[in-house]
């Protein structure tokens, strides 16, 4: 899909946004998508108008990663009630 967006841009000059569907549940997955978009489309597509990740599960994972980084331990369910 990213290559189709790139080809369309090269042919028309019109930038089309991209929002990957499903499967983005972890910070690691989101970094992979960021890297892929940057490599295929360039930095211009890393703006919120052209690239969006909409995943509430991702937010929970990022909260857990930050908690672990700050405290050195993994969060229990009661530590992050919104997760």
Notes on the protein architecture:
It is a single chain. The protein is an all-alpha fold and 83 residues long. The chain has helices at 2-12, 27-41, 56-71. The longest helix is centred in the C-terminal third of the chain and has 16 residues, at 56-71. The model has no long low-confidence stretch (mean pLDDT 88).
Describe the structure using short key phrases.
0% strand; mainly alpha; 51% helix; 83 residues
Task: Give a brief outline of the structure.
This protein has 83 residues and is mainly alpha-helical. The protein has three helices and no strands. The longest helix is centred in the C-terminal third of the chain and has 16 residues, at 56-71.
**Oligomer category:** single chain
Largest sheet: none
**Gross geometry:** elongated
State mean pLDDT (0 to 100 scale): 88
> Approximately how much helix is present in the residues?
40-55%
Q: In terms of structural class, how would the helical and strand content be classed? A: mainly alpha
Low-confidence stretches: none
- What string, H for helix and E for strand, traces the elements in order? HHH
Spatial gap, N to C terminus: 31 Å
Number of helices: 3
Strand content: under 5%
Computed Rg: 16 Å
Care to count the β-strands?
Answer: 0
């Amino acid at each position: 899909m990213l290559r189709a967006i790139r080809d369309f841009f090269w042919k028309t000059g019109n930038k089309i946004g991209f929002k990957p569907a499903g499967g983005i549940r972890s910070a690691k997955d989101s970094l992979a998508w960021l890297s892929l978009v940057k490599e295929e489309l360039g930095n211009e597509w890393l703006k919120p108008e052209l690239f969006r990740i909409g995943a509430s599960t991702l937010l929970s994972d990022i909260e857990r990663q930050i908690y672990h980084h700050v405290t050195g331990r993994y969060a229990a369910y009661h530590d992050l009630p919104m997760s």
